[in-house]
Each structure stands twice: as structure tokens, then as C-alpha cells.
Amino acid sequence: MAGAKRKPGDAGPVRFRVVESEDGSTLGSLVARRLGNLTASQGRELVRAGGVYMGHLRIRVPTARVIPGERITVYPSALEHEPLPCAAVKFVHRDPAFVVLDKPAGTPVAQTKQSARGTLSEALRRVLTQEGMNRPYVGVVHRLDRDASGLVLLTIRDIANKSLHQQFVDHTIHRQYRTLLHGSAPQQWDCDAPLREVRSGKMTVATEGEPRAQPAQTRFERLQPHGASRPDTTLALATLQTGRTHQIRVHAAHTGHAVVGDAKYGADADPADKTPLHLHAWRLEFTHPVTGKPIVVTSPLPTWAVAARDR
User: Fold this and answer.
1) 173, 275 contact by CB (below 8 A)
2) How far is CA 146 from CA 110, 242, 246, in A?
3) Which residue out of 145, 147, 273, 310 is catalytically annotated?
4) Active site residue 192
5) Which residue ranges form the domains of the chain, and what is each CATH number?
6) CA neighbor of 246 nearest in space, from 193, 283, 207
7) Tens digit of each residue's pLDDT (9 = 90 or more) over 7-56
């Protein structure tokens, strides 16, 4: 049974079930045959890239054998993702239990449903392997928007994972961001509007009493006078009291000062606008998961995020 031909970049997954005549086929060869427009090597590469699931489990071994009735889900776009170069892994702070990296804008921290390639966590795993660590463990403590830049905390030992995740849940990991906002913002303002997810990867301000609403608090402080960094903008420091998905971006837009370059939440958002997202994770403060000592880390600032007081 042949599947409909799909180009690697086609949006959306391809789903099918293994039939009797395919019993014992390798996953890589099955995917290539079912999609119809892939070579055998591309089928194997698609599996290695993390674009293929058996049931609900991502399989990255092309030689895995299939059985009749097994449900296969394929994300052809995984072939578009190249491995992130090890040079992209920039250590800001390093410890035997965890690392803090400076993430470039445009790079995802962790794997997505569509692909396991091109992520910072995967590149860190390769770096640790090259350094001699056998089957390194990498745990993502918190995510940073793909288009944002700055500090990301990842664990590299199981012993640190539970402690740091608990600090994140308890909101005792303190995070500050530099962001460039539209308009003339006040010297200081708070936003405690609750948030809820409206669809995968998209958040909105919730109305009072909504069952899916999550508490969210952000404090903004003006760092640069109106228009000093760029006409009709304000450079600000954003401090998270909670850590919801896209919290700063949604709260900034809700208070009338959307983040410059935010094509998702800006009032005049235009997906075709190529202005980069002006959001940089600048400062992290947390407790060392083993010693209990305070750790404070800051990252180099991009040019647009430098205030007069930094000079």
C-alpha cells in the first residue's frame, strides 16, 4: 500500500498503519516507501532527525522493525533541520551539575514535536560527548522563546534536575530580561493579568474566573528614555514573578507596549515583518542544587539592549 507523495517541506504530519505485507520492514525503508518521494537514505535520515513516531513514541533508529497494526506518524519537515554546530554552544557559567548557555536568537532550546534536530540541548549533548562524557544527560530547566536570545539553564547531572526544576516551579529562580517596547512607557509598571493557552504555542490574557487561567506577574522598569534606542520605543527591564509561556510578550502587548519585532502578539503584528524580536534573557539568579550557595549570572548584551547606565 503506497502513501500519497509528500515533499519534505510539506506542512503537517503523514499518518498510516503498518499492513501485513510490511511486517518486519525497517522503519527507515518503510517511511521512504510510504511517502513515495524519498530515497532510502532520506527515509533513514528522517528517522534520525526525530521526525518519525511509532504510536506516541519518537523513534530515532532507522533499523527498528515494524509490526502490522502499528500506527506511524511522520513529519517530513524534519529533513529541513540541520544539526546545530557545536560552536553555537556558548558557556556563560559551567558547573559539574549544570550549565548556563547564551542562546542565539532563532535557535530552539529543546526538541519540538516535528523534529529533534537543530536545538541547543542537542548541540550541548554533542559537545559533552566530544569531551568524553558517556551518554550525557541534558535536562531543560526552562525554555526561552525561539526568537529571543540570552541565558538558558540546563542540567547535565540527574542530581541537579529535581532541585532546579522545583526552584522553577516555586518561582525562586529569578529572571530578568532586557526588551525594547513600542511607545513611551512609564518609569515602572506591573501587569498581573492571568494567562491561558488558546492553541498550541499561543497564549492570551484570560478573563477572571476562567478555569484554565494561570496566574502571571511581570514588573517592567524603564531603562532608557522614550526614543533613545530607536524612534518611538522604550528600552525596559522585565522581571518575571512567574514563568508562563510568552509571559513578557503577552503582558507587554496587553499594557499597550508590545515588544518590538513581536509578530505574534504585537497590535499591528505582521508575520511578513522581518524585524527581530527584541527580547533578551539578561540575568539569572538561583540556588546551587548541591551546595545551596546563591548563583547569579548575566549575559553579554546585544547592542540594542545596552542602556546609558551600562556604559
Assistant:
1) no
2) 9, 19, 11
3) 145
4) no
5) 14-80 (3.10.290.10), 86-310 (3.30.2350.10)
6) 193
7) 555 568 999 999 999 999 999 999 999 999 899 999 999 999 999 999 99
